[in-house]
Description:
- By secondary structure, the protein is mainly α.
- The chain contains eight helices and no strands.
- The N and C termini lie far apart (37 Å).
- The mean pLDDT is 96.
Amino acid sequence: MTNNDIQKLEELVKSLPDNGKLRLALGKAYLAASELENAIKELELAVEYDSDNPEALLKLGNALAEKKDYELAIGNYRKALNIDSYYVEAFYCLGMAYVDTNNKEEVEKIIKRLEQLHPIWAQGLKSYYSKIL
């Protein structure tokens, strides 16, 4: 996403500040541009305005994990999974956060669940997990 695209999204958000989907789009754009503080701010607002959107929670978790705030990231991934218990990407990201915090027991639980849902994602997590074994 270019700076011009981000500017257009910022203008849209100014005209519709309570729109959670626009906030999510802007947060994702900031995340892609590695503007973590802006991403977190927008994604928190996206969750506030659209609290049943698991993608907003996932992306907020991703921004927090990138900032190494794993406790909050894990909480957001879990909230996303409370909304959609089959959200493969949320399981994967949750597993990655547990790998990064060296929580082997939780990683193994997530791998077992991913093996049921999507073996390819499970294999990716196993590969990342092998780095801490």
